[in-house]
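Handover notes (outgoing to incoming on-call)

Open items:
1. Ribosomal RNA small subunit methyltransferase A: sequence verified, structure written out, both below. Nothing else pending on this one.
2. Nothing else urgent.
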Amino acid sequence: MKTNYKKQNDGKVRAKKHLGQHFLKDNHIAQQIVDGLTSHMGYKQVLEIGPGMGVLTKLLLEKDAYQTYVIEIDRDSVAYLKLHHPELTPRILEGDFLKYDTSEVLPEPFAIIGNLPYNISSQIFFRALQIKDQIPEIVCMLQKEVAVRIASGPGNKDYGILSVLLQAFYDIDYLVSVPPGAFDPPPKVQSGVIRLRRNTTQQLDCDEKLFFTVVKTAFNQRRKTLKNALKPLVDLPDDPLLTLRAERLSVQDFITLTQMVDQAMKTDVP
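Ribosomal RNA small subunit methyltransferase A structure tokens:
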């Protein structure tokens, strides 16, 4: 079905609530996001998630250091981009980033950038973790509460599952806060921009799948000590680490904890 967005919306794309769309309209903030990308991370392509009406896209296309791709699920936005940026048309991926096999189009390392839909931002990060070796850098805007959580360190009440899983593989900087008035329509929450740069960790010194499970299980019972929180997985022998709660542990502590759980599971096998 062909989408005539221009006739429907007088040349603009109508933000769709079910897609979590809030279009950035502040060009200064847009420039700050684009400038957050660095050229020394070894990538030649950038993938923008959810470009909408292209406030970031037009700035990305001015950069010679990399080639810009976009992925968009909204047909109206796709039509808008094809009309206003026809040179981008071969590099518009129509679909859902959560389900799209990017390796078919972007087999080499690429950066991710975008004003992420707030209702699925966590899912986008979990998907990015699945292909982390392809993604040396991420610069994105999302709900400030989530951005702060991702950038928080151990001992902070905001520190959580995403903090640990992402910090295991990325160095994270909180760049700037963005008020609701920078968007159309304005969201009911504050927003924040963060940058993630791939660190030197190629492989964790533990079972990675079990690491993810241990982190999630520990924080799902974050008010309990780790010994009690992890009982659904295994009954661990006494250890000083197990008297703490999840929010006190560093990434390295969680690696050590995963090794303990792995050993206990193997010992527990009849």
